[in-house]
Design brief:
Low-confidence stretches: 1-40, 306-310
Helix content: 25-40%
Distance between the termini: 87 Å
Structural class: alpha+beta
Strand content: 35-45%
Shape: elongated
């Protein structure tokens, strides 16, 4: 009877149909799980996005690719609600004649663009700092022909034969970024350095380094996520990576996701940028510092570790209060017992 039931129910056609349904069910379950996990760690970065500068004119893109990035040192001072950039780039013009390019940063929310800059200052070959020009360029005039317009911070550079050093200081707002969590979201600070504009130059993915220094009472423990993961080394307040490690990790950018200290944050318009530029430019970094740092990993977008620590501290505080009350009650009872015995 058992054999007859098995053979009549699990015919080849039904067995194939059941197997197919199981596969479909598994696929739906797997997709739901991946979608749920993806939603929980999907940062929406609208502030704090930057990159290297690029040619403003489309016709200059071919020329800029003949100039190589000889070296680069990017220093980022991290504060609550903003970062201060001190970026030095050394370019090599291997030709026998000067190449003049109009270069800069396009500010818009789309690919290849950057966030709003505060107090952008440029120095060429350690010369006096100067301002960039603000220009709104319509499509067809810039390297982004598909865009209606873009606000550019731009300036002209004459790359003489040999090495030209370009130094930048500017501020970026990092507050007001979100990470999705199911139907909810968490607001945090975020900084992102994109590699997309490096395609406009020769090299850049094998030279230089990036440094981050935590300020405002922050330590590296306050970093929730740092991508690409396991490419950085860190100490108590300093983080470091070689550009060849982060740029060759199949990533389009390096991003920092860190805690918010103040609910309201600090308005970038009220920041003393000149003082902070002086501070980041005076920050001396070298190989001796790198030797003191240890491998760093951070992928806790949702801040689960900190929340767990808060819950543990709250539980400890609650039990301490209960123990304190119990001790007081014990001594009161002991006192009452002693009085009655008298």
């Amino acid at each position: 009877m058992r054999t007859s039931f098995r053979n009549s129910f699990f015919t080849p056609h039904l067995r194939g149909d059941i197997f197919m349904r199981l596969k479909i069910s598994f696929f739906i379950l797997f997709t739901a799980i991946v979608s749920r996990c993806g939603a929980q760690i999907a940062p929406l970065i609208s502030n704090g996005l930057t990159s290297i500068f690029r040619p403003i004119n489309e016709n200059d893109s071919a020329i800029s690719k003949t100039i190589s990035i000889y070296n680069q040192q990017i220093k980022v001072d991290v504060y609550d609600g903003y970062v201060v950039m001190g970026a030095d780039y050394w370019f090599n013009n291997s030709s026998d004649h000067a190449i003049t390019l109009d270069i800069g940063f396009p500010q818009n929310g789309n690919e290849g663009f950057v966030s709003k800059f505060y107090w952008l200052r440029i120095r060429i070959n350690n010369g006096a700092p100067f301002l960039a020009n603000d220009t709104s360029i319509t499509n067809g005039d810039s390297a982004f022909g598909s865009q209606q317009h873009a606000l550019w911070n731009h300036w002209k550079i004459s790359f003489q034969p040999g090495i030209t050093e370009v130094s930048l200081n500017y501020g970026l707002k990092t507050g007001g970024n979100y990470v999705l969590m199911d139907d909810d979201s968490i607001e945090r600070n975020a900084f992102e350095y994109s590699f997309l504009n490096y395609a406009e130059w020769s090299g850049g993915d094998t030279t230089g380094e990036i440094w981050l220094r935590m300020n405002d009472g922050y330590v590296t423990k306050d970093i929730l996520s740092l991508l690409p993961d396991k490419k950085f080394v860190a100490g108590n307040s300093i983080v470091h990576a070689f550009m060849k490690d982060v740029m060759n990790a199949s990533a389009s950018s390096t991003s920092l996701w860190y805690r918010t200290l103040e609910q309201e944050g600090i308005a970038p318009e009220h920041v003393n940028w000149e003082r902070n530029f002086y501070k980041v430019n005076g920050w001396v970094v070298n190989e001796k510092i790198v030797a003191t740092l240890s491998p760093f990993s951070g992928t806790d977008f949702e801040d689960n570790t900190f929340q767990h620590e808060q819950r543990a501290a709250s539980t400890l505080l609650r039990w301490s209060a209960i123990a304190g009350v119990a001790i007081v009650i014990f001594f009161i009872l002991l006192f009452i017992y002693a009085e009655r015995k008298k």
